[in-house]
Amino acid sequence: MSLDAVLSRIDTDLPEALDRLLELLRIPSISTDPAYKAECAKAADWLVEYLKSLGFEAASRPTPGHPMVVAHGGKGDKHLLFYGHYDVQPVDPLNLWDRNPFDPEIQDTAAGKVIRARGASDDKGQLMTFLEACRAWKAIHGTLPGKLTIFLEGEEESGSPSLIPFMQENAAELKADIALICDTGLFDDNTPAITTMLRGLLGEELTIHAANKDLHSGSYGGAAANPIKILSKILGNMTDATGRIVIPNFYDGVTELPDNIRAQWQSLAFDHAKFLGDVGLSIPIGEQDRTPLEMLWSRPTAEINGMWGGYTGDGFKTVLPAQAHAKVSFRLVGDQDADAIRKSFRTWVEAQLPADCRVEWKGHGAGGASVMSIEDPAFEAARLALGQEWGKPAAYIGCGGSIPIAGYFKTYLDMDAMLIGFGRDNDQIHSPNEKYDLECFHKGIRSWARILAKLT
Ligand SMILES: [Zn+2]
């Protein structure tokens, strides 16, 4: 069978694949630090040469920041776009690394062989799993595994300032049937996963103004409004005793989990006692009729991230402050409309203020959740392929945080994205001594070969 030939080619070529990855890891492409601008360009050029060697038409495309690598190749009915990023996080504090972060090494550890370097997991090692699968395919079949566009960014670790304009300017060129993103992780050490739900985020900052100046609590206390009390009372009541958020219309657009996804999540071995125990807690605090995984992945939140006002220095001051401040954020799910929630939250706060107080608002970023429709048969095909490689069915999972790129593909290119990654929780991405397990690199390449065989 030809897939078997590709898989055994991947196995025999693994030492060379590793050498190629190590070469890429030696380029210190730190995107946030202008001192490394030339190194970012070098990493982009390295990838362009790599892609050309596979028969792609590839180019490093300038942006106001670091270049994008765009490549096209292959033929087929289904057009796939693959996204990864070649830039890496800074390496400080350098003294906590056990070696030069850009002098990669294969190390033997108690848990198996690891590739130790900045970017080993996030995201050079991961993006190379896809490219190496293409390489093995080409070696066996003489062609690429279908119609492919490769899109590699160099600013992911520094806020992606050029990404949206580039997508807008090149929308027709980048548009494909589905996007594949390799920048996430396995569900647990050996359970592969496809992330299909990412929560959105809305930020608000507010100041409550009461008296026109700070007052003495002896002279005015009992008669004059205290804005810290008002603010803490309002925000403290955002959630009721059952964990439900009481802001009017807040749950508009929150969708219930499809039964098959709920069943899958229930079958996942998620140890919430350990999850909370690791941070010194034991009681899940969300809506009491929800499982902890639902609280994290498919339910919205309202959180106070900071609150200040009055006297907080050493000693004591009997002040009635004139103002109180807070930063509040909401994680959003389903079709919740960030702008509508901002409005509703503001109206709800304002309605509770005494008539002689006022509130001043500062809005922070707003972005809705991304929920992939798994109706496209590509999702189920990829899930089966992953299960075959890892010997365990792959799970459709959510992600409590936000991965903006998935939403951008939807918004600007009108395509769904499949987030499939082979990172492990202990990869120490963004931290000293980042590593990528050799097993993940190897099985990652094999997984993509299996997925491509089904999708193209
Ligand atoms: Zn990344």
What does this structure look like?
The structure is a single chain. The chain has helices at 2-12, 14-25, 37-53, 124-141, 163-169, 171-174, 227-236, 259-267, 272-277, 292-297, 338-351, 377-390, 404-413, 438-455, and strands at 57-61, 68-73, 79-85, 105-109, 112-116, 147-153, 178-181, 193-198, 200-209, 215-216, 301-309, 319-320, 323-332, 358-367, 370-371, 395-399, 417-420, 435-437. It has 456 residues and is α+β, with helices and mostly antiparallel strands. Strands 1, 2, 3, 6, 7, 8, 15, 16 and 17 form a 9-stranded mixed beta sheet that branches. A 4-stranded antiparallel beta sheet has the order 11-13-9-14, covered by helices on one side. Strands 4-5-18 form a 3-stranded antiparallel beta sheet. A hairpin with a 2-residue loop joins strand 4 and strand 5 (112-116). Zinc ion (ZN) is lined by residues 85, 122-123, 156, 183.
